[in-house]
């Protein structure tokens, strides 16, 4: 394009910056330039949507196909329009000091020339390069950056045709280098004459000025003598530089191929914006980069490619970094005020999967998590809830954990057989650019403050699985490799799925033989859920009907009764809001929790399936805190503890051998057994409220529970309080009933 055309485009850009106004009448870009002049802002972000709004379609196409040149034109137009600073209290930086010294040196040379009777000549080199005086960075925002349906290219679609073009891609950040200074303008000082010489650097490498390439005026002053130039680092201009690698999304990788990656260069204010594991949308200029050194000899005319970033946004953030809108907060309160939000949220998790109501509740609590505590002595108590799903093939374990990975803002999905110890924790690699040894985080490090989902957990090698022990409890990874000794944060929730030792659960063997995981690892899971594929005619018929409806209608049937299913965005917003709450355990619950923990420990003497340790007590607290968060409460109540204990019991119920006792027990006897056990655990036999009764008998229908309560009330086993007919409760036991344990009446025993 002729220089004249670039001049016209610069005038158009200058007019656009000067005259563009928003709907409220404010001059958008002139206000930004004023902030830059006042040193309150360092980025001039040009939204291409504003150019499209002004009807500058030709200019848009030129920027898209020749982005770097037009970034320079925008900077030149902004330099012309730069207003004077309106603040008088601007802090003085190094550049201001150097400018004052340069001006003083120029005045002294002019005085010396006048005293010598010579005419002072204007030194062309004293006209500072615009890059040296510019205090801002120009970036470009694509038209649809604020649109949820933003158009982006697949990483595999970026080819040689797009060299020099503006491209937008999505990917996962896998590697991040340290931020280092990159020289933009090199300043040299002639030690004899005191004249400064400037050299603009456009790439990552530059060759210092040679004597035969000096400016004509400086060469004449030395009259054939070799000048002595010294590089002045203080007078040069440097820019922050960082290089990252972005890997294409797993959903964009064709089956049977390896994912591709691209190198991205971040400069200035765009540095330190991402870390490994972030899912980002990147807009930048696709550029070639010739090989250097020995690689250039082997490569010949082949060049590598990279993207110079212009704009970068996060697609999925951690809950703590997610800013909720007022509408999302209001919607979360509406869900909480609705009917049974706990059951509604759980039913909305993977609704296409039939059943597993309690498993989904456990996964919901996993995403919510408990409260992490930092003790005064430095010890950290984790709040993350670890869950392991073990069961027969075909019970939807993988689908459940994939759905959790989809909903969570920050999650990493991997498989046990495809992951090594360093692949999960961290590996030491050599940086190809600087030849330095750098750490690359593994799956657990990438999922920091998120969820790491590991499928086929039982297929992992024992040596690789050992690396997870420190991560699960201390939430750190200690590295001592290649001279690098450090500790990385892995504040990660672990969700694992595994099969029993022989593929399917063998009821002839003990639970310990079937689970086949070391006790040290097993005790670190807050919930170890065993899902068996049991043959039950009614359940199998309902499952088949559910699957057929999903395939026939293409929609998920609502199996949660009157609850309207929530979308993943609604669940994500609700969890993001409740994670801002920090509920605590009141002192009044200390005795209740301690007595239940002691009872669970006492059961270990006779039950082979139990593995209650001191970690189980902390698991109860974490689950109760997660339940309190879901209810928008700052204090954990007894109902939360009861539900946490119920979930822990449900997770172990499937570990029991399905003997004749459970097969011959009718519904009413099962409900009675649960209520009797609950009454015996209450302090001072204080009775049970309707809410507590439903928490213990949530797996049964309301009508069945009411019938059981009325039946045993007529038999005078307990006394009902019918003040509220819709919510009957059990009165405190009388003195006669306290003399011995509640026994099931003989006339209701099965087979009597």
TrEMBL record:
Residues 341-547 form the MCM C-terminal AAA(+) ATPase domain. GO terms for biological process: DNA replication initiation; DNA strand elongation involved in DNA replication; double-strand break repair via break-induced replication. Keywords: ATP-binding, Cell cycle, DNA replication, DNA-binding, Helicase, Hydrolase, Nucleotide-binding, Nucleus. One of its GO terms (cellular component) is MCM complex. Its EC number is 3.6.4.12. It is found in: Nucleus. It is an enzyme of class 3 (hydrolase). It catalyses: ATP + H2O = ADP + phosphate + H(+). Residues 107-127, 728-752 are annotated as: Disordered. Pfam families: MCM (PF00493), MCM_lid (PF17855), MCM_N (PF14551), MCM_OB (PF17207). The keyword Amino-acid biosynthesis does not apply. One of its GO terms (molecular function) is single-stranded DNA binding. SMART domains: AAA (SM00382), MCM (SM00350). Belongs to the MCM family. Acts as component of the MCM2-7 complex (MCM complex) which is the replicative helicase essential for 'once per cell cycle' DNA replication initiation and elongation in eukaryotic cells. The active ATPase sites in the MCM2-7 ring are formed through the interaction surfaces of two neighboring subunits such that a critical structure of a conserved arginine finger motif is provided in trans relative to the ATP-binding site of the Walker A box of the adjacent subunit. The six ATPase active sites, however, are likely to contribute differentially to the complex helicase activity. This is DNA replication licensing factor MCM7. The gene is MCM7.
